[in-house]
């Protein structure tokens, strides 16, 4: 009996991770009852982000500018590059403030099962950045999964002819663990003990 | 390091019930990465609801039209009126499809503690509807809390001079339980066994 418009709002919210149909209904009620305090700010924030949303042409991050805020941050060490699978990994590492360099987002990991090949990932742009001589160290920060490690190994081979130090996160990471879910302590330890790829 | 605009979106989402700061961040990432599938539909749905949002001048429901969809539904029995504390209670009862009549939302419950007096609730409009002779039965569907029952008792006294049948939900409801959280079976039983107010 809720109107079509309210049902559409409920459905749009229910598609977000962490919100099911029931919690989406409660969220909608909250939005309707606190229009000025919640609905309007959310609407304005979405409008702004939608209007400015961009994928960074340098690193693959999503942000409200291109190049992104990380790539244009002059306080970061541009000569150190951390390669991650997903934007969520970049955000997790960035939030921890443990890595003072820049990033490169692959947009996935090599997977025979899912048919993901090197050309499906942001690898050419990575090679381009390294070949351009702008980088001294590449930190391979793939997930500690089979596919993540396969990807790291592939990248280390593609990069070995360049005069850069190639490291990867220490395997203090729990096996099968995904970067985005780790606590800061584990991330800090793994970064601190990063080691050259053999 | 996320942009101001992205932070604002995260904060707006984190204010919704069921989403904390961490899940709001994940939801934002999801929105940014699936722009067409999630961000745009949510934005459009919010725009539409914001533009049409109204409080029903008859019953106090929030909807995208005034009068609301419940009040204008000709398949409902206009002579039976269910009085609830909050819009969320109306939605819960409406979702269960157990009550075929119309509703009246008080917008709260009498509370000495919170300083809520009769004139702070939609009681005059309720009396007006009953005095207008449009109603045969008033179902008092307050929460089974002390304040809910105080409110029901107050309403039954205000309504006793009118030629209407006044009933309240049977107290199969768990003590302290709030309507909006009850399963349909409990709601059905309480409605079925509703009894005249002494
Ligand atoms: Zn960037
Ligand atoms: Zn109405």
TrEMBL record, chains A, B:
Gene Ontology biological process terms, A to Z: DNA recombination; DNA repair
Zinc finger (C4-type) residue numbers: 56-71
Pfam families the record matches: RecR_C, RecR_HhH, RecR_ZnF, Toprim_4
GO molecular function per UniProt: DNA binding; zinc ion binding
CDD domains per the UniProt record, alphabetical: TOPRIM_recR
Domain Toprim: 79-174
Keywords associated with the record: DNA damage, DNA recombination, DNA repair, Metal-binding, Zinc, Zinc-finger
Bilayer-crossing regions: none
Role according to the record: May play a role in DNA repair. It seems to be involved in an RecBC-independent recombinational process of DNA repair. It may act with RecF and RecO.
Family to which the UniProt record says this protein belongs: Belongs to the RecR family.
UniProt protein name: Recombination protein RecR
Species assigned in the record: Parasphingopyxis lamellibrachiae
């Amino acid at each position: 009996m809720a109107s079509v418009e309210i049902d559409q709002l409920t459905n749009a919210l229910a598609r977000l991770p962490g919100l099911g149909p029931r919690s989406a209904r409660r969220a909608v009620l909250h939005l309707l009852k606190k229009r000025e305090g919640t609905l309007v700010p959310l609407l304005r924030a979405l409008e702004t982000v939608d209007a400015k949303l961009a994928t960074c042409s340098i690193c693959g991050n999503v942000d409200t500018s291109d190049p992104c805020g990380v790539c244009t941050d002059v306080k970061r060490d541009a000569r150190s590059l951390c390669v991650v699978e997903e934007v969520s990994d970049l955000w997790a590492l960035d939030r921890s403030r443990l890595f003072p360099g820049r990033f490169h987002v692959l947009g996935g990991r090599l997977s025979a099962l899912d048919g993901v090949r090197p050309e499906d990932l942001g690898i050419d742009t990575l090679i381009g950045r390294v070949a351009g001589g702008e980088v001294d160290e590449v930190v391979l920060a793939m997930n500690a999964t089979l596919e993540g490690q396969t990807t790291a190994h592939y990248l280390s081979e593609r990069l070995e002819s360049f005069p850069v130090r190639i490291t990867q996160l220490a395997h203090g990471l729990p096996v099968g663990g995904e970067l985005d879910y780790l606590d800061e302590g584990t991330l800090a330890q793994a970064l601190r003990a990063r080691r050259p790829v053999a």
